[in-house]
Amino acid sequence: MNKSGTDSSKTPAEIQSADDIESLKAQMLDMQMEIDILKETINVLKKDPGVNQEALSNREKAVIIDALKNKYSLPKLCRKLCISRSSYYYQEAAMRAEDKYCDLRTKICKLFHNNYDVFGYRHIVIYGGIQIISSLMLRFFGCMI
Length: 145
Known about the structure:
The chain is mostly helical. It folds into two domains: 12-96, no CATH class; 102-144. The chain contains seven helices and no strands. The longest helix is centred in the first third of the chain and has 34 residues, at 12-45. The termini are far apart.
């Protein structure tokens, strides 16, 4: 070995072929990661295998990363899915957070279903004694129907 750390007994062709082998291994691992990401897109999200990865929402990307992060490193997955680490951690925290309107949502659903699914926003506000913003109420109705 010489000072630069290379073996002087190797010919330039052997060094070139070793570099080629390393680059081919890196390409193979990259392609395997792409295949695994597509498989998880199908398994977890039930999306078409030909889906554009950039068209996925950050939440969907975070779910895919969760499924694959014990096999691949987080920075590589984030780079491959075009999501920043801070966005990934934000989505993780948002998925773990509990629903702050859970009690209100159950009360509205119960009142709606107890009245044969005919109560609208105004009836629920009047008869249920619930003070709520109309846009939030409409979002709850969208989940009930």
